[in-house]
Amino acid sequence: MESRFNLMTNEVGAKVGKRMYNVSLAIRESSLPKALQELVELRASQINGCGWCVDVHTKEAAAAGETAVRIHLVAAWRESAVFTEAERAALALTEEGTRLADAHHGVSDETWAQVRKHYDDDQIAALVSLIAMINAANRLGVITRMQGGSYEPGMFADLSS
């Protein structure tokens, strides 16, 4: 399977990509831990089947100091002993926020209560925004069939200029 379309070589697609990247910078600058951000983005990308995004967030998680064990176990976090209660709350919110169309209840009150227990308001704003942004990025990647495997950590650092 090959990519259908390269958004970054299209004028409109590149403008949208740059703006999405700049929104992501505000999230990156929050107090939400970088490694947790990558795990959240990885989990949403796994659910949505975005090969490009799984590649990006696997490699960025490793670059942020995550261990191979934790990266590999994100897909089975509920059945793993390597995640903290706070990380579990963030991953549950990620799954429920990503699977909105699959669940009649959306984000459960139980999950929201766990998120409120572990994160302050700024971190919650960052977490909710992060989940929304990665789901948008996943859709761009899946629709255009962006292929995983070629990403190098930090390769888009110059987009913010």
Automatic annotation (TrEMBL):
This is Carboxymuconolactone decarboxylase family protein. It comes from the Bacteria. It holds the Pfam family CMD. Residues 19-96 form the Carboxymuconolactone decarboxylase-like domain. It comes from Streptomyces machairae.
